[in-house]
Amino acid sequence: MCQLLGMNCNVPTDICFSFTGFQARGGGTDVHSDGWGIAFFEGKGARLFLDPQPSHGSPVAELIRSYPIHSLNVIAHIRKATQGPVGLENTHPFIRELWGRYWIFAHNGNLADYSPDLDGSYAPVGQTDSEQAFCHLLQTLKNRFPRAMPDSSALREVLDDFAARTRRFGTFNFLLSNGDCLFAHRSTDLHYLIRQAPFAVAHLKDEDVTVDFAELTTPDDRVALIATLPLTDNEAWIPLPTGRVVCFSEGACDYGANASTGTN
C-alpha cells in the first residue's frame, strides 16, 4: 500500500530532512513506485507538487529535497496503486476548497466496493477510492456545517464518525489539513513524533543522513511529524491510536504524551 508523511509546526519549518528519507521509499528502499506528491500550506495558499513517476530519482522530488519551503502544515504521499491506473489525476495529495479554505487529503489503504452517494458538490477527477472518499468527506462536512467552518473539536467529532463508517470498506489511514491544523487517522499503520527542546541528533533509516536539530532550532520550536512507518532509527516514534482521528496543532497533538523522548 501507499505511505504517508505529515508535518505540523508552531513556526514555519522545512521538511527537507524527513522528505529525504521518505523520497527513498518511492522505488528505492521500498516498492511504492506509482507516483508521489507533496503539499505545503502558506497562509491561505497551498503549493502542490505531483509526479506520477517514482519519487526515488524524480527531478521534482530532488527539488523538494533541496529547496527549503517553510510551512506550518505539510502532507506528502508515495503511491502503490490499488485502484485507478498510474497517472497524474490519481496522484495524492488531493486538493479542494471548502468554506473559502483549501483542504489537502492523502490516503493509505484500499476501500473495496466503495461507492459513496455523491450529490455533485464534489466530484472525483481520477479513478481512485481515495479521491472518492475525499469528495464524500467534504460533502459530509459541508452538509453538516453549511454556513461556516466550526472549531477543530467539532470537526474532529464529524471526522471520527466519517472514519468509522468508511473503514468498514477497508483500510483507511489518512491525513487531512486545512492549513490551521492537521488531522490524522490510523487504520493500520501511522506513527508520530514530537520534536522539541532539548533537541538532539536524528538519523534517517532509509538514507545515511544525520542532522543535529539543536543547531537549527530555537528553544521554543516544536514540530510534529506523522509517518506510516518511522523515518529515523534513533528516535522514539509513537503509534497513533487505532480508529480515532487525532488533531495536531502548533506542533502538539490531542492524544498521548506531547514530549519528545529524544534519541535512543
Low-confidence stretches: 257-264
Q: Ends: how far apart?
A: 29 Å
CATH class: Alpha Beta
CATH domain fold name:
Glutamine Phosphoribosylpyrophosphate, subunit 1, domain 1
Major pleated sheet: 7 strands, antiparallel
Main structural class: alpha+beta
Average pLDDT for all residues: 94
**The CATH homology group name:** Aminohydrolase, N-terminal nucleophile (Ntn) domain
Compute the number of helices.
Answer: 4
Number of strands: 15
**Helix fraction by DSSP (H/I, runs of at least 4):** 10-25%
Task: Count the domains.
Answer: 1
Q: So, CATH architecture?
A: 4-Layer Sandwich
Give your account of this protein's structure.
The protein has 264 residues and is α+β, with helices and mostly antiparallel strands. It has a single domain (3-253), classed as 4-Layer Sandwich (Glutamine Phosphoribosylpyrophosphate, subunit 1, domain 1). The chain is 18% helix and 31% strand. The chain has four helices and 15 strands. It has helices at residues 16-24, 59-66, 129-144, 152-166; strands at residues 3-13, 36-42, 45-51, 71-78, 94-98, 101-108, 173-177, 182-185, 191-196, 201-203, 210-212, 222-227, 238-239, 245-249, 252-253. Strands 3-2-4-1-12-9-13 form a seven-stranded antiparallel beta sheet, with helices on one face. The protein has a six-stranded antiparallel beta sheet with strand order 5-6-7-8-14-15, with helices on one face. Strands 10-11 form a two-stranded antiparallel ribbon. A hairpin with a 2-residue loop joins strand 5 (94-98) and strand 6. Helix 1 packs antiparallel against helix 2 (59-66). The relative contact order is 0.18. Mean pLDDT is 94; it is low at 257-264.
